[in-house]
């Protein structure tokens, strides 16, 4: 038991990444209006957020440009149209998915780019590809992270091996990614400590990317922070695929570093996100509770919510339990 | 770090209390239709829930019977109309609020009552009254708990004193009650350990009653369980005043004791709670986020949500910050 109250202090080295437009884009094929993207960008600047992730650097061979919004590809011109010259201290990030990104040609050198960070996302079987991508982005001048997805489905021996490999790359950060939204606090503690032990000796930070299937995204983010994660992801109003993410408005209220401001986020929510809720659904609805607790990918729950039986929880539960 | 995975095991002694109708009644002056109360009751029986709390034993001198629903008073006849003779292993509870209950006359002896448990709720300044109430209910044959409210506002020395006093009563359980919904996990850990140290030597259990202002009700309930709480409160769909409570559907999915069944709860939600949401509002909305993080009573947030400016988060935030 802590004799004092560490929760009223802060760690200056803790940095927040906003991935509202990137993760939220998974709901609507990345088709956000410029007005919203600009508002989120300005809010990040005003709120003291450290990084903003706009979307993916997806292969134009694999994905047709006319079927997705701009944030599926994150072309330099599209980003500059949003940010102008005024990004202040905010660093911009794009995600590069292993197997879905022509990174050699589509990611330019940093000196020609508006981006500061490339976040390389991969499943555990894609680690060799991810290692090449991390090296490529690092050599081009970017800060690089490794987002090892779906950690709740990885065997312990494979995870240990993957962390050892990533520790040898020039990535600055390795992120615990709870893709299924299934982790409980004790699991988060265990993973963050494991990641930390594996990568801290090579000077890397541990991050957390939580999903809200079990109403635990904020709680698990706090848990990760307590156990040493210094890079944390959040989204405005918790926007994100399925159950959504750790809500920025809660996270900034928790963090005690005076540089973070909650008020601009509240302004954004009332000006833009109430309206967004009229056309886009996200949040810890019952089907996401169920898939999260069964450690299943949220795709079945998303399909349920898109269908006529969206509120037939028992039917969905019976199907999921049969699938286990 | 745990080398193993305690989260897949369970403690047989952990008991769940449903307070859907009691806490939910604070939203609508306890005016639930019998149909809903019966459905919640039957769900508790089918789901293996240990206790169900129906409402308050409120003074009829202080509260006019025609201004409130039956569950403000929990008369024996009203309860029997709901439960009939079929309560199985489910124990029934009523809450008795210090200062608002004519307990000497309005609580009959256990042999004449359908209730099994009296939960005595008090603020720290009401401890002497609560002690008398606990003794009265115990002498009448009931299991008795002490729900010490608004713990986040109590000075440490007063809390220590209160726990020492309650330890000397015949209450079986002392409950950590986060009335403002403001506690973070480290605070829950600290309180549960403190309560445990104070009351376990006299054979009492520690309980947790969380509110969901910060989307932490479920997380804080898990945190309390990890640190030894064996009595946990939850409500169907998280129904409860303001931000609501720990959702039963999530809690039962987390607990691994095979006696608990999640499926009847899902059935209840789809049959009754979707409809209830059309007329009653609860959940971790932004004004509750704000009041929770500022450790303020939710009444201002409730007033905000009841008014024309219910979505003016910035105005509400500015008012709350000015009030701190």
Search tags:
TIM Barrel; 324 residues; eight-stranded parallel beta barrel; 13 helices; alpha/beta; 2 domains; homodimer
What is the topological layout?
Two copies of one chain form a homodimer.
Chain A: E1 15-18, H1 20-24, H2 34-47, E2 51-56, H3 76-83, E3 91-97, H4 103-106, E4 117-122, H5 127-139, E5 143-148, H6 156-167, E6 173-177, H7 185-199, E7 205-209, H8 217-226, E8 231-234, H9 248-254, H10 263-276, H11 286-293, H12 299-306, H13 313-323
Parallel strand pairs in A: 1-2, 1-8, 2-3, 3-4, 4-5, 5-6, 6-7, 7-8
Task: Give structural notes.
The structure is a homodimer of 324-residue chains. By secondary structure, the first copy, chain A, is an alpha/beta fold. The first copy, chain A, folds into 2 domains: 265 residues, Aldolase class I (TIM Barrel); 38 residues, no CATH class. In chain A, 40% of the residues lie in helices and 13% in strands. The first copy, chain A, is built from 13 helices and 8 strands. Chain A has an 8-stranded parallel barrel with strand order 1-2-3-4-5-6-7-8, surrounded by 4 helices. Chain A is globular. The model of chain A has no long low-confidence stretch (mean pLDDT 97).
């Amino acid at each position: 038991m802590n004799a004092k109250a560490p929760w009223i202090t802060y760690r200056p080295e803790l940095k927040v990444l906003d991935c509202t437009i990137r993760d939220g884009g998974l709901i609507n094929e990345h088709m956000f209006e410029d007005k919203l993207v600009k508002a989120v960008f300005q809010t990040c600047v005003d709120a003291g957020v450290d990084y903003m992730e706009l979307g993916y650097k997806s292969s134009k061979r694999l994905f047709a440009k006319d079927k997705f919004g701009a944030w599926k590809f994150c072309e330099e011109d599209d980003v500059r149209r949003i940010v102008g010259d005024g990004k202040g201290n905010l660093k911009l990030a794009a995600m590069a998915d292993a197997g879905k990104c022509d990174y050699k040609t589509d990611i330019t050198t940093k000196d020609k780019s508006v981006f500061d960070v490339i976040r390389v996302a991969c499943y555990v079987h894609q680690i060799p590809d991810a290692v090449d991508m991390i090296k490529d982005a690092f050599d081009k001048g970017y800060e690089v992270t490794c987002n090892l997805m779906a950690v709740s489905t990885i065997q312990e021996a494979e995870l240990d091996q993957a962390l050892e490999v990533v520790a040898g790359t020039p990535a600055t950060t390795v992120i615990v990614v709870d893709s299924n939204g299934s982790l409980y606090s004790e699991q988060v503690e265990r993973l963050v400590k494991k990641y930390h032990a594996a990568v801290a000796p090579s000077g890397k930070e541990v991050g957390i990317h939580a999903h809200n299937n079990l109403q635990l995204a904020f709680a698990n983010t706090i848990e990760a922070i307590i156990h040493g994660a210094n890079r944390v992801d959040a989204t405005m109003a918790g926007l994100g695929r399925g159950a959504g993410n750790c809500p920025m408005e809660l996270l900034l209220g928790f963090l005690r570093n005076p540089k973070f401001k909650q008020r601009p986020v509240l302004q954004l929510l009332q000006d833009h996100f109430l309206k967004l809720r009229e056309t886009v659904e996200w949040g810890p609805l019952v089907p996401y509770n169920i898939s999260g607790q069964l450690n299943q990918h949220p795709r079945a729950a998303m399909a349920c919510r898109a269908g006529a039986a969206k509120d037939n929880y028992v039917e969905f539960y019976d199907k999921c339990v049969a699938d286990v």
